[in-house]
Amino acid sequence: MDSEPVNVREFQTLAKEALPKMHYDYYAGGAEDEHTLKENVEAFQRITFRPRILIDVSNINMETTILGYKISAPVMVAPTGFHMYAHPEGEVATARAAAACNTIMVLSFGSSCTIEEVASSCEAVRFYQLYVYKQRYVSAQLLARAESNGFKAVVLTADTPKLGRREADIRNKLTIPQSKNLEGLLSVEADSKGGSDFGAFASQTLDPSLNWKDIAWLKSMTKLPILLKGVLTAEDVEVGVDAIIVSNHGARQLDYAPASISVLEEVVQAVAGAVPVLFDGGVRRGTDVFKALALGAQAVMIGRPVIYGLAAKGEYGVKRVLEMLKDELELTMSLNGCCTIKHITRNHVRTEGDKLR
Ligand code: FNR
């Protein structure tokens, strides 16, 4: 393939060529039968547009505001682990690319660069993603470090009381490096007998007793806004947080969970405007971004495409991925007759559940 991709999917092909199989599989894979993995992408393909014509679209403005921070377009970087498997500069390169595109990066607990390295890489608004560990002081210390290093919000990932069964990682006997962020905080004995060391790490460290009461515990520890990541049902809409992220963890946790886009509207209706709703899972096109916004998301987050950009072309690759999605969103807005993000409405899309008019 020509080495300059023309769309985000082509970065995946380059990443596959560039990476050792074990690492590519870690990034690309999902849980068990990977049903949800396919659905995350395919459910977008079943949504079509109701474009409007004869609207002056000579000036398109994609800017939006997330928790008070202005970003150039509603496309953010999702938290994903171990960027140094993809590129030696790891999350520092990703952070610089996100900053250059004037968007927000969420740094994963599993960052291969330290919180401090990412914080000092460049000026930008960043959020920190937290898991709750059995040893609560570990989460408390990570949070305190993120806060003192200028991170502006905490993303609590709530869909991982246990790690999903990612069979490619088990087959490949994936081993993960000791996280620099956890040095001196957590030491774990890896058990790689027939299983993934990552699985062993997760089962030894993650706290499966985490529950709704712990939101109050988290609030008592930080003044930062809290975004709850992993909501997939109206029943789990909790307005005691500052934002909700509709996500199935990129289909890496519960297989046969619904495609994220198929439940976005249910969650948005339950939230009823009380807090912003963000979205991730399967976004590969500017048209996907538009569809998620039309169904009520304030912004989307991108997981794998960012890593594929990083693996293929480092910081430049991540920048290109974000720029491509922004350019495609701009065109989609023009062709649907929307000049600003606020002009994108539910009436611009038709889902399978909608009656044909
Ligand atoms: C993830 N995701 C994730 N989520 C999280 O809260 N903490 C984490 O450390 C990780 N790590 C991680 C690693 C890798 C390799 C992937 C692919 C994903 C999930 C991520 O934040 C996001 O929900 C999905 O990646 C979104 O789906 P797409 O964009 O990858 O389809």
UniProtKB/TrEMBL annotation:
FMN binds at residues 79-81, 108, 129, 157, 229, 247, 280-284, 303-304. It comes from the Eukaryota. This is (S)-2-hydroxy-acid oxidase. Residues 1-354 form the FMN hydroxy acid dehydrogenase domain. CDD domains: alpha_hydroxyacid_oxid_FMN (cd02809). The keyword Flavoprotein applies. GO terms for cellular component: peroxisome. It is an enzyme of class 1 (oxidoreductase). One of its GO terms (biological process) is hydrogen peroxide biosynthetic process. Belongs to the FMN-dependent alpha-hydroxy acid dehydrogenase family. It is found in: Peroxisome. The gene is GLO4. GO terms for molecular function: (S)-2-hydroxy-acid oxidase activity; FMN binding. InterPro entries: Aldolase_TIM, Alpha-hydoxy_acid_DH_FMN, FMN-dep_DH, FMN_HAD, FMN_hydac_DH_AS. The keyword Flavoprotein applies. Its main location: other. The active site is at 249 (proton acceptor). Its cofactor is FMN.
